[in-house]
């Protein structure tokens, strides 16, 4: 039996994972949501203006009302600056698996933040919620994301195709599983 708790705040050595707030919108927009390089291999398109980011944060607030869906901002403890986001939800094809996804501002790549956030979320979902099966994918052209997944224990399972939510982009991906 799962014990869903919703997107409660989580902490690591360098990060706070918390729900994003509307006042975070300018930083979210500037740090990653509007960056074409960051969003190139994500399912959502870069935000065209601050209003899109504000709407996305409102949607995250709505999503968070469902305690079985999770959405956090990745925030630097030292500066309280949002640098990315991470979320988890039931996978449509394998509903016993939770799908994890994350995005991180370009200037924060290669510093271990994604690994730290992903490990924290998995620890919470396993130990506090009771989820034992996860799925994650990355675009083949983004091997650094695969390294993050492998670093926290994910194992490559198969190739696949992802597309943006609006259907405007498709990309080949690698799919990883983690079973605890």
Short overview:
With 180 residues, this protein is an alpha+beta fold. 29% of the residues lie in helices and 31% in strands. An 8-stranded mixed sheet has the order 1-2-3-4-5-6-8-7, with helices on both faces.
Please provide the ordered H/E string of secondary-structure elements.
EEHHHEEEHEHEE
What percentage of the residues does DSSP assign to strands (E)? 25-35%
Strand arrangement within the widest β-sheet reads 1-2-3-4-5-6-8-7
What is the name of the CATH superfamily? Gcn5-related N-acetyltransferase (GNAT)
Helix-strand category = alpha+beta
The best one-word shape is globular
Q: Describe the biggest sheet?
A: 8 strands, mixed
CATH architecture level-2 label: 3-Layer(aba) Sandwich
Gap between N and C termini: 15 Å
Question: How many structural domains?
Answer: 1
Please provide the count of β strands: 8
CATH class: Alpha Beta
How many distinct helices?
Answer: 5
Using the CA coordinates, give the radius of gyration: 15 Å
Average pLDDT, all residues? 94
CATH topology: Aminopeptidase
């Amino acid at each position: 039996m799962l014990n869903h708790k919703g997107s409660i705040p989580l902490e690591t050595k360098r990060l706070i994972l918390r729900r994003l707030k509307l006042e975070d919108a300018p930083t979210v927009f500037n740090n990653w949501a509007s960056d074409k390089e960051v969003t190139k291999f994500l399912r959502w398109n870069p935000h065209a203006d601050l209003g899109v980011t504000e709407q996305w944060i409102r949607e995250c607030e709505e999503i968070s009302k469902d305690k079985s869906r999770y959405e956090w901002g990745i925030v630097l403890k030292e500066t309280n600056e949002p640098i990315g986001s991470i979320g988890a939800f039931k996978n449509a094809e394998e509903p016993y698996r939770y799908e994890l996804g994350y995005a991180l501002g370009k200037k924060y790549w290669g510093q271990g933040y994604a690994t730290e956030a992903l490990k924290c979320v998995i620890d919470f979902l396993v130990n506090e919620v009771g989820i034992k099966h996860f799925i994650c994918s990355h675009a083949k052209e983004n091997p650094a994301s695969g390294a993050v997944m492998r670093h926290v224990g994910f194992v490559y399972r198969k190739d696949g195709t992802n597309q943006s939510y609006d259907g405007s982009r498709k990309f080949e991906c690698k799919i990883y599983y983690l079973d605890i």
